[in-house]
NADH:ubiquinone reductase (non-electrogenic)
Amino acid sequence: MRFAGSFFDGASKVFRHRPTFFKLVVILAGASTGGLVAYADSKSGLNVQSSQGTSKRKVVVLGTGWAATSFLRNLDSSLYDVKVISPRNYFAFTPLLPSVTCGTVEARSVVEPIRRIIRKLDIVSFDIVKVAADLIFSFCSSRQKVGKIKFWEAECFKIDPTSKIIHCRSTAVTNPVGTDEFVVDYDYLVIAVGAQANTFNTPGVEDNCHFLKEVEDAQRIRSSVIDCFEKACLPDLDEEDRKKYLHFVIIGGGPTGVEFAAELHDFVTEDLSKLYPSVSGLVKISVIGAGEHLLTMFDERISKFAEEKFQRDGIELKTGFKVVKVSVNDFTMKAKSTDDISVPYGMAVWSAGIGTRPVILDFMKQIGQGGRRALATDEWLRVCGCDGVYALGDCATISQRKVMEDITEIFRVADKDNSGTLTMKEIQDVLEDICIRYPQVELYLKSKHVNSILELLKDSKGDVTKEAIQVDIEEFKKALAVVDSQVKTLPATAQVAAQQGDYLARCFNKIKDCEEHPEGPLRIREAGRHQFRPFLYVYCSSHAMFCMGGHKISLA
Amino acid sequence: MRFAGSFFDGASKVFRHRPTFFKLVVILAGASTGGLVAYADSKSGLNVQSSQGTSKRKVVVLGTGWAATSFLRNLDSSLYDVKVISPRNYFAFTPLLPSVTCGTVEARSVVEPIRRIIRKLDIVSFDIVKVAADLIFSFCSSRQKVGKIKFWEAECFKIDPTSKIIHCRSTAVTNPVGTDEFVVDYDYLVIAVGAQANTFNTPGVEDNCHFLKEVEDAQRIRSSVIDCFEKACLPDLDEEDRKKYLHFVIIGGGPTGVEFAAELHDFVTEDLSKLYPSVSGLVKISVIGAGEHLLTMFDERISKFAEEKFQRDGIELKTGFKVVKVSVNDFTMKAKSTDDISVPYGMAVWSAGIGTRPVILDFMKQIGQGGRRALATDEWLRVCGCDGVYALGDCATISQRKVMEDITEIFRVADKDNSGTLTMKEIQDVLEDICIRYPQVELYLKSKHVNSILELLKDSKGDVTKEAIQVDIEEFKKALAVVDSQVKTLPATAQVAAQQGDYLARCFNKIKDCEEHPEGPLRIREAGRHQFRPFLYVYCSSHAMFCMGGHKISLA
């Protein structure tokens, strides 16, 4: 799970103590310019069956990470019978994991028991009411009735979308009574299981490398670093052996690897050099990345800053190298223009990318999505080819509907008088819905430095006045031919997952209202509107901050 | 490692920051009344060979526990070439381990890296000098020259006392270069390896029970407690199954078991009941002890207090029961008058006593001490049957010389005029040395409520005036016939280990001085005096405090 920005640090502090504040912060952050949005036309929005009578719909949430906990914190749990299932009974603030590896932050400080989170949801309305009776009472009126959320520490190993059940197995390491397995049925399934480390089937990685995905990984890394130093201090070793033990290798040039390398460097320089003075001069830290640069997914300035800082700090960079094998004492890497190079090491951390969990692979096969890295959802986070199943966070990607796929229908909807041409007014009338439904349109306009689609069309028409413009279907297609080039996949970050969780919860909360008063954009293939607006990720590009070894750079 | 008293809590706090203060506290505490002391007559004190010229004697210390770190903190390392070898590279404040199990205290707070301890010894004199130049300078004058102490993280698996070498193996879990083994020679070997948990070969204990000896044990117990609660919350379980998961069993009625039971009770009552409200009422904590009471090694009032407190708290006590087998889901116990009783449990902690480490078992066989639980030393902590080897802490016991074994020689030494009888004056002249050498004498006098051995002899002589008393050898033997009944083995506690380490270090520091000016008691079989006083354990019986679940009871 990647993380960019100290914004989230501050947000999370208030997040823990005042969930309402957190929502305000997220909403305000969401109001800034730009955004990556995926839209698609589809038959229906969320399942329109709202709670009927006294029997509540069953919502089962898989996961306790950023997406799941964001969903839970924002869900009005009085409307549903909610169960949470995860092999991990706490939420982990993953951006701080590299800091846990070196003891900068204690593991205890970056985790919160899920039971405490769901318990707070039981009592938060009462707390607020106590604080300022009438005024806040009305604010909380929709949260007065709260339901008990259940948590079960178990792993879902199979999803059966036809029967709408999931198969689970307890993961607690304790002597079992009978079988550890059980089955849970659902009306709505929210899959937020995240991803696992991706070894790309590189031999030896599982056995010899550390990952950095969970708190336990961070703690193991910490022990291992100390072990390496202790081994390097033993008698009867020559200097080459000591250097081998003190060669720390990070495989992966993304944020996790880069942050860990920086933390390790500081730990060695400021702390371990005092405890191990005789060997600390032999330490070497290397970062191996397959890309041409570090942090290629970020702005070029961040990438450059990181590389220069590492060079000043004496951290060796090997960009453009792919690790092909890891053995007990050495690893083998290769660049395009080189042979295999074998390098001895003491400890290796593999943070080269995320992969799919087995339960998701199996599920994707069942629903005709085999061969993908992540579950495909529509822009309302509904799993394509499934009923009542949603997916968010690292385990899913949004399949954004393309303008050119729907261009004919868009034209038809806009052409109210069926004249076969569109006037500027006709286009204006549907423009807002188009932009909501296909956010790549706005991004395309920005990239062309025009304010409106109308200017785009005007340009193609030459000197005719705006009011006189009429475009036919071919001209319409031509003007928007490359707008879909702006479609981007959302990054697998904490911010995206948290926003998705929040969005989905708000949809669940207003199911009934939106049945009667749909709030979404115009449908393209049917009459009426979508029940909800699609998910809109708010990317705060003008406020992105990145911390590198204590330095902050602003991209204002 | 047992612990009694908050005295050590306070002492340890100042201990970490001002080692000199600590020594003062220990010395002052040692001045209180009573004490358990072991004396014996023997040919020589410490090896009288002090440092000669520029080549320093090699001192190898095995261990990083209470005894070893106390020894190191007090040793003038400038006099020796000191190496410390232990598989654990930190000192652990073991009395707080039960608090770590339930998160009352973080693991980080109860450990200190050994390298930091030995590094402080390198710089402590300079720190003090900076603070208050001349005055403290003279205080520190013997510490001005400090030597570098080496530490190697490895386990000694074989001691060869003939060749004066030890065989060691690295324990760091990292990919090895070549063999992990190495050999170290010594002039003086200080064995302070402690003890391990003793299963008494009870089947199933190793596989199914937790121990509580190390920090990792405490952390595992904590995870296991939470696992049990999570398992108990799963669906499709009947109440009996839930109760099984929530049955926490502590096997052992000593301080470790009792303190852990108390901590667990508080943890469940104050914290877990809020996170697991649906099942917290099903929790049961049982303490199984083979003795007739809990804490039989302490004062009866402490034992009674603990039992009553547990009864009030609903902790089940099973005293007089021995656990004969532990399976995955249940354990079997038996009392004298009952058959085997099988009881289901969720988690079991075994704290039923200490056992001997394999390296000590092997060593004892080599030196003719096979069949013992711990290494036998004399009262100067020298391993019997060995040259230049010392043992302290839980791995050793002092074989106290008995008065009746030496009664003839004692009489002879006291009978200066060789008259065949002893006057009161002749007895008075050697009395102090007798009491130093055989501390059971003072204890015996106390138990008889007499102030002096002279009163004891006077009683047996009837109405004769004190000055006229003369005793022959038979009367002397009769008066002291049962004095050795007061000989006690020291308990395996942190206080004993720490005092032993301190004592031994002071002996090592003044080897040269005591060659010229022996400070010990009169020798019984030879002329002159012992080089050093024997070890004297100071037991603060009038200030013993014991904390039970927040209550303190004073035995003033």
Summary: Chain B has 19 helices and 26 strands. Confidence is low (pLDDT under 50) at residues 1-53, 124-145, 542-556 of chain B.
